Amino acid sequence: MNNNLDRVDKKILDLLQENGRITNAKLAKEVGLSPPPMLERVRKLEKKGIIQKYVALVNPKKLDRGTMAFVAVSLRLHRQDAIHEFVTEIQKFPEVLECHHIAGEEDYMLKIVIKDIVEYERFLREKLTGFSGISRIKTYFILNTLKQETKIPIDIE
Q1: Which pLDDT band holds residue 132 (cuts at 50, 70, 90)?
Q2: Is 92 helix (H, G, I), strand (E, B) or coil?
């Protein structure tokens, strides 16, 4: 999809991904604009949906949520109603950080964060296995995260 981003827009996005709390004045100075047109460009990027939201990245271990896992889910049936039920319900689980529809042996890959193995077992028993349409669940616990990046690479000409 072409969003007609010029070099300045790309630089703005690059800087905001590094520091979402940068002031409009500092951002304007970094890209060589005055603050009013800078603010207008940022608002335009927000309106287009290129900038989706601003967030704080927190350390899950500091919140007693130090266990993470990828959970591969296969559905028994691939009918629209079964898919819709799964997708709708999975949105309600705060443990699920990400849910991806994938190609391959499984249908969905979840990234979950939990306190420990006891909480995982509870999540599995009380939430995930509540779907009658699930045929298989495979869990891969994350032992160590070697790279975790939220910044999308941008080619700035």
Answers
A1: confident
A2: coil
CATH number at residue 103: 3.30.70.920
Closest to 83 (Cα-Cα) out of 108, 120, 56? 108
For residues 110 and 69, what is the distance between their CA atoms, to the nearest angstrom? 8
In the prediction, which pLDDT does 2 show? 58
Query: What residues contact residue 18 under an 8 Å CB cut-off, 6+ apart?
Result: 151
The Cα 74–Cα 78 span in angstroms is 10
Question: Is 57 strand, coil or helix?
Answer: coil
* Residue 67 three-state SS: strand
Residues 131 and 75 in one domain: yes
Tokens representing 81? 């109603």
Residues in the chain: 157
Q: For 54-108, write each residue's pLDDT tens digit.
A: 999 999 999 999 999 999 999 998 999 999 999 999 999 999 999 999 999 999 9
Structure tokens belonging to residue 50: 């290129």
- Is residue 64 domain-shared with residue 135, that is, in the same domain? yes
For the whole model, what pTM was predicted?
Answer: 0.88
> Is pLDDT at 37 greater than 80 in this prediction?
yes
- Structural domain includes residue 148: no
Pull the structure tokens for residue 8.
Answer: 């300045």
